[in-house]
Specification:
This protein is α+β, with helices and mostly antiparallel strands. It folds into 2 domains: 263 residues, 2-Layer Sandwich (BirA Bifunctional Protein, domain 2); 89 residues, Anticodon-binding domain (Rossmann fold), CATH 3.40.50.800. It has 15 helices and 16 strands. The protein has an 8-stranded mixed β-sheet, with helices on both faces. α2 packs across α4. It starts with 15 loop residues before the first helix and ends in a 5-residue tail after the last helix. The chain binds zinc ion (ZN) (2 copies). One zinc ion (ZN) binds next to α7. One zinc ion binds next to α9.
Length: 421
């Protein structure tokens, strides 16, 4: 192919095994979101830049250096959505969904965009499935979200491969105290922090925990802990959530420095980490955001949400789960005289929802068998002059190589028994 037409870096085509797992995650997520009473919402990919700057926070890595932003032809600042929450909040307000309890619990599945340096595991277009739950500050809501995610991971078969990490980032009442302690700590160790962190200090000091610089990470080990400054209400929220998780046997640990990379979080936040992929190991995360709705000019409405990173979950599934083999058949015919006969048989097979590849158009029988092999079908159904005359087919098990003649009326039964004697 001419290189001028090649994919952009960080953008990928999804097919084959990856797409199988992609659909599995999407379908499982949708099933549980519906069982838990969420309604689906499809959101625009392009939004005003201001929505994300305000929602995610000026000090966040996303806003500082990762947004796909540009001016449209009307000279408006627009951005391809880097995450889902800000858009759902906007949609919630813009469509007056507050007045309709049916739409207080929303879920979305779709592509997100971040102009990150495309290293391993970092895509510029990636996909997330997420939920947002408006209207309650109860820790029961936090728990319901986490329990739903737990059941999704269970059904996907990876719940024993992940850890839930939980923390509280405090509220309007207690976070300001913590931020001032943290700022004093920062200033005492000013020279040990990188230039990015110095910028973070002035925008939102909590964001220094997002820094991946080893020197900063090391210095932060001795930073004041947020749990020491949490107010009683925030403590109650964290304790209630973790009690409920313990009772439900959802394994978790509390990590003092977990703040998640977004400014809108308040109180409980969490992350799900896969025990295998190293630095990129968070496959899902979320938390409470009690101020975001009012930040966008709405009433004061508490909310909670989380999102699953689909691509990272695909990696986890590929490492742990074998792709199931589909029942599939290749229809081969000895000569063009049997083509119509083989099409009749294809009808019978497809009526039973058996995946059927008709190969009569591909050269002679040996060529057809080669293609059948490459397609990885379980059986080849072969028809020749004799089969046509006697209303039979030759059935070849592609794994064992065994071949039998089978009357057409017995073909489906034979295939369903999945074996030849
Ligand atoms: Zn608090
Ligand atoms: Zn740093």
């Amino acid at each position: 192919m001419d290189e001028r037409f090649s994919r952009l870096r960080g953008f990928i085509d999804i097919y084959g095994e990856d797409l199988y797992f992609f659909n599995l995650i999407e379908n499982t997520f949708r099933k549980y979101a519906e069982i838990y009473g969420f309604e689906e919402i499809k959101l625009p990919i392009l939004e005003r830049t201001e929505l994300f700057v305000r929602g995610i926070g000026e000090g966040s890595d996303i806003v500082r250096k990762e947004m796909f932003s540009f001016k449209d032809r009307g000279n408006r600042d627009v951005t391809m959505r880097p995450e889902g929450t800000a858009s759902v909040v906007r949609a919630f307000l813009e469509n007056n969904l507050l007045n309709d309890p049916k739409y207080h619990k929303l879920f979305y599945i779709g592509a997100m965009f971040r102009a990150e340096r495309p290293q391993a595991g970092r895509l510029r277009q990636f996909h997330q499935a997420g939920v947002e739950w408006f209207g309650s500050d109860s820790p029961l809501v936090d728990f319901e979200n986490i329990s739903m995610l737990w059941y999704i991971l269970k059904e996907l078969g990876i719940s024993d491969k992940v850890d839930f990490i939980v923390n509280s980032v405090g509220c309007d009442k207690c976070t300001p105290n913590y931020k001032s302690y943290l700022t004093s700590f920062f200033d005492e160790h000013y020279d040990k922090f990188c230039e990015d962190c110095k910028e973070r200090r002035n925008k939102n000091i909590l964001r220094i925990f997002d820094c991946k610089n080893p020197s900063c990470q090391n210095t932060l080990k001795n930073a004041p802990k947020i749990k020491e400054t949490l107010c009683d209400n925030c403590k109650y929220h964290l304790d209630t959530l973790t009690d409920m998780m313990s009772k439900d046997k959802i394994p978790f640990s509390i990590e003092d420095n977990l703040v998640r990379g977004l400014d809108y979080y308040t109180r409980n936040v969490f992350e799900v980490r896969y025990k295998g992929i190293g630095a990129q190991n968070a496959i899902a995360g979320g938390g409470r955001y009690n101020n975001l709705v009012s930040e966008f000019g709405g009433p004061s409405i508490p909310a909670f949400g989380f999102a699953i990173g689909i691509e990272r979950t695909i990696i986890t599934l590929k490492e742990n789960i074998e792709l199931p083999k589909k029942m599939s058949v290749a229809l081969c015919s000895v000569s063009s005289k049997e083509t119509n006969f083989s099409l009749e048989i294809a009808k019978i097979l497809r009526k039973e929802k058996i995946v059927t590849h008709v190969l009569s158009h591909i050269g002679n029988l040996s060529k057809q068998m080669k293609v059948a092999n490459k397609l990885g079908v379980k059986f080849a159904v072969i028809v020749g002059e004799e089969e046509f005359r006697e209303k039979k087919v030759s059935l070849k098990d592609m794994e064992t190589g065994k071949q039998n003649t089978v009357p057409i009326e017995n073909l489906i039964d034979k295939l369903n028994n999945k074996g030849l004697e």
